[in-house]
């Protein structure tokens, strides 16, 4: 207690002595203390009022923040800046920003030049000029109040103009509205620096850098618990909002995130209608950890790309792909796609064979064709017809036999028999040549372009410094943007009328049934029928076989087998099997035989205007009993699918209708009786994990929020740097071509005077010595 008393007395004495010295050394205004005792100065946020009031001895303020606001407002009006020189429990000293002298760092050595780029110092300037202007305050009459003890307003430098003073750090201030707009710009992927231009209007109250700093600070604040942990908590919150939101996180041995998969409820429902053909690609790696982004992409009824879930994976190994495909299949209720298109990745192909053994796997045609200019550069770029012949062989072969003949002709003509790369391609021709895959439904897709278009669209929302949490949140924003485009197409297709051009009844019926974009593709086929002639080959009752040939292209000739009674037809071009719309060859026969409507069995539900009507997810059921809402969701979808089959059968005849109604009534009674007697709980599935890995999914117990997940390692995918090589956390990995280009084009700093690295002639120390 004695030490405390002595300390307080000494502090008061020093404060009074300091104030007396300041008053004697400088001619400042002195006013009686009693004039300002218990008198509060108006709020310093009102700059116009407070800046006209000069600080005086004895002014009392409610708190130290009020003192700083008042003095800062006075300084801004008078053209100088303010900073805190010292802050103690009973006394605080505010000084001009030009107070003091710059201290030379001990490591600086002006006689030598460090050639190491990492040790180079940045050129900078200083405000320090030894200015003595200051404001000293100490504790007042109450515990929280502060009184001005000393005020010196003499400066040894030029005071700034109102426009210039706003560049000083202490006078830069972002309003709440500006901060909110910065946060909104950041969420939408817009340049946050533009906010300064919107608010300042010629005044520099804050700069672009301040906007970027605020956005960075906000990201840092959101990641206080760790990046991967923040993603986990975000997913838990999303699941509380929507119990049908599905996610799964795989951890490595160090409890760090290894793989992460997530999908929203709408995508899960959409997959049940449009999940017959998908594309899968992992070439996009723009995030802080360089983790490959793996979207599952399909086609909706407007022929737009639609997402069926996505993942961030640690590596492109077979084990990671198997884990991802199994989790995706679990989220989709076990329904496997008819076909899938990927790039030429061995590990991915092996995983697809194990998880989707009955799915037709096809390689991206564009990726393979893009390698021809590299692998066959000696003939591909010359002025020859090789490029045209190759395209015709790959894309325009009318049959497998025709392709085999033309391929062998190319090999012989251009002497490519010994080319090993072409031999390997030929051995896997069934997985990439179109003629081998036209009998399988691919929704008209030949490449992974839809996955890459998703990547390109998403690229406007993220960059190489995007954290995992930002990635997931901005992905949600990007997905909402695509959903808006889908709703716009719904409006265009349902409430506007397509322009007819052929006068055909088939065209009129197609415009009524199909969406706008699918009708456009059907219309393109219908417009071509005038170029074709038909020749009857044989007839068997109501069944006809025709040869339909293009008058201008002898290669465009196909056989159509049609039954005029049942309107069942098939064409050897197999466009309907591949894309789901009638080809021009069948339309030639239908038009000639007076068929006025597209037969029902030729109208795929997925291409119709109202195919996505049931995709809008209803509000999730409240899960009061703690049961698994996800299994409820999957059971509901499966039951609806089975019920829709019964509804379709009931329309066909009166007997089927009565039988189905009777059986459904009996089933309902039995189910109600079972519900009252037996409690049907939702089972929690056992999570299957890979060796030395742990899975965290939505089906976890109540202790899940207590889990701590570490941030993932930087991914070392194909073509990336190995362990031991220095990799920056914020760098963007470049291709080999880009790296070699940068090495050859970017020159290091070299002085032309002394020949040393790290500086130029203008800053050379030897030049100064010579001068």
TrEMBL record:
Q: What is its main location?
A: nucleus
Family, as annotated: Belongs to the FHY3/FAR1 family.
Q: What does this protein do?
A: Putative transcription activator involved in regulating light control of development.
An example GO biological process term is: regulation of DNA-templated transcription
One Gene Ontology molecular-function label: zinc ion binding
**GO CC terms, sorted:** nucleus
Q: Can you tell which superkingdom this protein's organism belongs to?
A: Eukaryota
Per its record, how is this protein called by name? Protein FAR1-RELATED SEQUENCE
**Which terms are listed as keywords in the entry?**
Metal-binding, Nucleus, Zinc, Zinc-finger
Domain SWIM-type spans what residues? 558-594
Database matches in SMART domains: ZnF_PMZ (SM00575)
- A Pfam entry, by short name: SWIM
Location(s) in or outside the cell: Nucleus
């Amino acid at each position: 207690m004695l030490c405390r008393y002595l300390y307080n007395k000494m502090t008061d004495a020093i404060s009074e002595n300091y104030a007396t010295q300041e008053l004697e050394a400088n001619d400042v205004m002195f006013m009686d203390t009693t004039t300002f005792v218990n008198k509060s100065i108006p709020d310093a946020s009102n700059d116009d009022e407070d800046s006209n009031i000069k600080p005086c001895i004895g002014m009392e303020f409610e708190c130290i923040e009020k003192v700083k606001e008042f003095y800062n407002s006075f300084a801004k009006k008078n053209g100088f800046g303010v900073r805190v020189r010292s802050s103690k429990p009973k006394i605080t000293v505010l000084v001009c920003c030009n107070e003091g002298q710059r201290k030379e760092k001990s490591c600086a050595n002006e006689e030598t030049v460090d050639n190491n780029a990492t040790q180079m110092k940045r050129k900078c300037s200083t405000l320090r000029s030894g200015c003595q202007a200051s404001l000293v305050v100490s504790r007042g009459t109450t515990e929280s109040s502060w009184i001005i003890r000393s005020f010196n307003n003499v400066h040894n430098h030029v005071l700034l103009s109102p426009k210039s003073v706003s560049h000083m750090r202490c006078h830069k201030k972002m309003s709440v509205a500006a901060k909110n707009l910065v946060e909104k710009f950041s969420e939408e992927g817009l340049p946050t620096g533009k906010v300064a231009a919107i608010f300042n209007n010629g005044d520099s109250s804050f700069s672009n850098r301040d906007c970027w700093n605020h956005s960075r600070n906000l990201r840092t604040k959101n990641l206080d618990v760790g990046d991967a942990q923040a993603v986990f908590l975000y997913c838990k919150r999303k699941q509380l909002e929507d119990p049908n939101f599905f996610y799964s996180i795989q951890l490595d041995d160090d409890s760090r995130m290894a793989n992460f998969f997530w999908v929203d409820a709408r995508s899960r429902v959409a997959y049940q209608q449009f999940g017959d053909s998908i594309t899968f690609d992992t070439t996009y790696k723009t995030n802080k950890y360089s983790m490959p982004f793996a979207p599952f992409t399909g086609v909706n009824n407007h022929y737009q790309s639609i997402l069926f879930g996505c993942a961030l994976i640690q590596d492109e190994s077979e084990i990671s792909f198997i884990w991802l495909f199994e989790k995706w299949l679990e989220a989709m209720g076990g329904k496997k796609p008819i076909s899938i298109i990927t790039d030429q990745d061995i590990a991915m192909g092996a995983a697809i064979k194990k998880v989707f053994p009955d799915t037709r796997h096809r390689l991206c045609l564009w990726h393979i064709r893009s390698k021809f200019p590299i692998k066959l550069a000696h003939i591909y770029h010359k002025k020859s017809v090789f490029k045209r012949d190759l395209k015709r062989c790959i894309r325009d072969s009318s049959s497998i036999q025709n392709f085999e003949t033309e391929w062998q002709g190319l090999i012989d003509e251009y002497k490519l028999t010994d080319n090993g790369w072409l031999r390997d391609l030929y051995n896997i021709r069934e997985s990439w040549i179109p003629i081998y895959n036209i009998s399988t439904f691919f929704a008209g897709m030949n490449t992974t372009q839809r996955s890459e278009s998703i990547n390109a669209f998403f690229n406007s929302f993220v960059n190489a410094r995007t954290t995992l949490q930002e990635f997931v949140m901005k992905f949600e924003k990007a997905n909402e943007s695509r959903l808006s485009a889908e709703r716009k197409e719904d409006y265009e297709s349902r409430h506007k009328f397509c322009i007819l051009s052929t006068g055909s009844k088939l065209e009129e019926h197609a415009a009524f049934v199909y969406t706008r974009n699918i009708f456009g593709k059907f219309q393109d086929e219908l417009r071509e029928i005038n170029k074709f002639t038909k020749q009857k080959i044989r007839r068997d009752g109501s069944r006809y076989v025709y040869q339909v040939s293009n008058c201008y292209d002898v290669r465009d000739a196909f056989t159509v087998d049609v039954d005029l009674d049942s309107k069942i037809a098939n064409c050897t071009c197999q466009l309907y099997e591949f894309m789901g719309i009638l080809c021009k060859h069948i339309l030639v026969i239908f038009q000639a035989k007076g068929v006025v409507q597209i037969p029902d069995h030729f109208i795929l539900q997925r291409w119709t205007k109202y195919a996505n009507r049931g995709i809008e997810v209803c509000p999730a059921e409240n899960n009061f009993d703690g049961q698994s809402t996800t299994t409820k969701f999957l059971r509901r979808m499966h039951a609806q699918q089975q019920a829709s089959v019964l509804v379709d059968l009931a329309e066909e005849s009166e007997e089927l209708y009565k039988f189905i109604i009777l059986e459904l009534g009996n089933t309902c009674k039995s189910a109600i009786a079972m519900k009252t007697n037996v409690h049907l709980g939702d089972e929690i599935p056992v999570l299957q994990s890979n060796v030395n890995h742990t899975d965290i999914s939505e089906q976890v117990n109540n202790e899940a929020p207590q889990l701590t997940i570490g941030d993932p390692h930087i991914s070392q995918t194909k073509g990336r740097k190995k362990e031991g090589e220095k990799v920056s956390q914020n760098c963007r990995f470049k291709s080999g071509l880009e790296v070699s280009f940068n090495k050859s084009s970017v020159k290091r700093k070299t002085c032309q005077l002394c020949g040393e690295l790290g500086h130029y002639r203008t800053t050379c120390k030897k030049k100064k010595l010579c001068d």
